[in-house]
Specification:
Elements (H helix, E strand, L loop, with lengths): L1 H24 L5 H29 L13 H10 L11 E6 L2 E4 L5 H23 L6 H22 L14 H14 L1 H4 L15 E2 L5 H10 L15 H12 L15 E2 L8
Antiparallel strand pairs: 1-2, 3-4
Helix pairs in contact: 1-2, 6-9, 8-9
Bound molecules: heme C (HEC).
Heme C binds next to helix 7, helix 8 and helix 9.
Length: 278
């Protein structure tokens, strides 16, 4: 009875520990680190439960109706693993020597211990070859490199999706696909005020060298995204994605010098591109 109480304490302890990790995982630990903490806790719990069951099985006496000891497959297995000698047979393995009344049994090294010992050596050899000779194992350095690579892939994806695109990072696009997309959204959204050839109507002429708000791709991105509401140029950032603004801005810049008919008079200042393109 006394033993039982002691055993039930251990699973309870781990149960509480699992719950406590759940509560702090919600606040700061990421899902990934929570997952690994949970795995370790589950593994230790499973090990402890197995250990407790093992203790219960080993120490519980199994007697049949006649009071004779029953040999279960499990107790056979345990005997094979421990090679222990019963109290009655201890005399057979008693060594001759005697030190101040202390005598020694010639017990065999338990097979479970030997198995662990040789298993450890085999594991060490495999580990060394995998991590240090072939270099295939996930040592810290390669783990770091894998993470950097994964981050680079993510960055590329974000860049492609336009999530990283701002007026600070925007660049001039020159590929046909982007410019065609830019023309499509220009004809649809902008031509009504700026003319289909960019010659200018309500809005200014894009084909001359004069710009009111600056003629770099960064300036133009800003004007399109934020608009000039007071002057009748609306902000487009809620209707066009960053990529679309970059496309239409790049398209506008291809109109320079195309000299369409019915051009609106130049407005603003003559734009001279500075060396850094701002
Ligand atoms: C309702 C009319 C209207 C529409 C539609 C319109 N714009 Fe404008 N846009 C203007 C006006 C007016 C200005 C001049 C603002 C000023 O004087 O500050 C302007 C200015 C600009 C400028 C700055 C020009 C400069 O000289 O600095 C850019 C770039 C521009 N628009 C791009 C676009 C793009 C791209 C679209 C379509 C997505 C668009 N606009 C749609 C009216 C319009």
């Amino acid at each position: 009875m006394k033993n039982k109480r002691k055993f039930s304490f251990i699973p309870t302890f781990w149960f509480l520990l699992i719950f406590s990790t759940t509560s702090f995982a919600g606040t700061e630990a990421s899902d990934a680190s929570y997952g690994s903490v949970l795995k370790v806790v589950v593994a230790i719990t499973a090990f402890l439960i197995a250990f407790v069951l093992w203790l219960v099985l080993v120490y519980s006496e199994n007697n049949d109706a006649k009071g004779e000891k029953v040999i279960t497959p499990f107790s056979k297995f345990i005997h094979a693993m421990t090679q222990s000698v019963s109290l009655q047979e201890e005399d057979d393995i008693m060594l001759d020597h005697d030190f101040d009344g202390i005598r020694e049994l010639d017990n065999k090294i338990p097979p479970w211990w030997t198995a662990l010992f040789y298993g450890g050596i085999i594991f060490a050899v495999i580990y060394m070859i995998d991590y240090h000779v072939i270099g295939d194992g996930n040592v810290q350095q390669s783990e770091y490199q894998q993470e950097v690579q994964a981050a680079a892939v993510r960055l590329e994806m974000l860049t492609k999706s336009g999530a990283m695109l701002t007026e600070e990072t925007v660049t001039l696009l020159t590929d046909i696909a982007s410019l065609t997309a830019g023309k499509t959204s220009f004809d649809k959204n902008c031509a009504a005020c700026h003319g289909f050839g960019g010659e200018g109507l309500v809005g200014p002429n894009f084909t001359d060298e004069y710009w009111i708000h600056g003629g770099s791709i960064k300036n133009i991105y800003h004007t399109i995204a934020e608009g000039v509401p007071a002057k009748g140029m609306i902000s487009w950032k809620s209707q066009l994605s960053p990529n679309q603004i970059q496309e239409v801005g790049s398209y506008i810049l291809t109109l320079k010098g195309t000299n369409p008919p019915n051009q609106k008079a130049a407005e603003g200042e003559k734009w001279v591109e500075s060396i850094d393109g701002v």
